[in-house]
Design a protein that fits this description.
Elements: H1 2-6, H2 12-36, H3 42-59, H4 61-65, H5 71-91, H6 94-101, H7 104-114, H8 117-122, H9 125-140, H10 144-150, H11 152-171, H12 186-209, H13 228-277
């Protein structure tokens, strides 16, 4: 563990972008309070900053430094980015914050954008499921994975952004609201999250049960720690097992949103009946 923690990665490009995102959100919070006078829910800000902190923890420091050496580190990055950081950022409601922090003109422009055919197409739950599943399967079972291991620029500028963007688009119509005019039903959201376990678990199982080392980039002598085969089994086992737990958590979140929505609808119905009876 000491050897692992002794080395760290400080990618200025990634660090700068994470810092800019944190500053932009803080500026948005300040402007939203000034324009609307409404208090932004603290839990949403916590979610957003927690998501950024998770990205920093796996992109920078020791995790970033050992990506090309240990498969379990690379898998941890994928799991944290796609199944924790991305949904937390979505729950931070950054699009809604931009709306509240903007003036009347920019608000109208943002509403037009969110109602556009392009956004409706990009946030279609079927398309986002297919894109996310394709990224997970395609990245692990094509030559792309070894290419990214041999080229740090490919990993930083292509692989990491693709995984993050695909995850953000996937969770955008499923949790939170972010001003989306059309969202799938709660039942469809639960179904989507449940079905996503299939490609994730299959990828993890194939990696775990493979009798050979799948990626040449990891079939090398390590300075310490697990051998290549044990490292691969650990990475596959993490994806195979943890996706069930994490996906179940987000399914429970959507179920709680569904229950809250039904409760609000029931209260409105009761209020209407009470007024009609007067």
């Amino acid at each position: 563990m000491n050897e692992f923690l002794r080395v760290g990665e400080l990618d200025l490009f990634l660090a700068t972008n994470l810092a800019l995102a944190a500053i932009a959100y803080a500026v948005g919070l300040r402007r939203a309070r000034g324009r609307s006078g409404l208090r932004w829910p603290a839990w949403q800000a916590i979610c957003f900053y927690a998501g950024l902190a998770l990205l920093a923890s796996v992109y920078l420091g020791p995790m970033g430094a050992w990506l090309h050496t240990f498969f379990w580190v690379h898998m941890t990055q994928h799991l944290v980015v796609t199944m924790a950081a991305a949904p937390l950022i979505v729950l931070g409601e950054p699009i809604t914050l931009v709306f509240r922090a903007s003036g009347p003109v920019n608000r109208r422009r943002l509403v037009r954008v969110m109602r556009s055919t392009t956004v409706r197409w990009l946030t279609d739950p079927v398309l986002t499921w297919v894109v996310f599943a394709s990224v997970i399967v395609g990245a692990h079972f094509t030559p792309f994975y070894d290419w990214s291991l041999d080229n740090h620029g490919v990993m930083t500028m292509i692989e990491q952004p693709v995984f993050l963007i695909a995850a953000l688009l996937y969770y955008l119509p499923l949790i939170g609201s972010n001003l989306l005019p059309r969202r799938p039903s709660h039942g469809a959201r639960l179904l989507s999250l449940g079905l996503m376990m299939i490609p994730e678990a299959v990828v993890g199982a194939v990696i775990y049960f493979s009798p050979v080392v799948l990626y040449d980039g990891y079939d090398v002598r390590r300075p310490f720690g697990l051998d290549a085969m044990t490292d691969q089994q650990l990475a596959g086992g993490m994806m195979w097992g943890l996706v069930m737990v994490i996906d179940s958590f987000w399914m429970m979140w959507v179920a709680a949103e569904w229950w809250s929505a039904e409760e609000r609808a029931g209260r409105r119905s009761d209020a209407e009946l009470a007024r009609a009876a007067q």
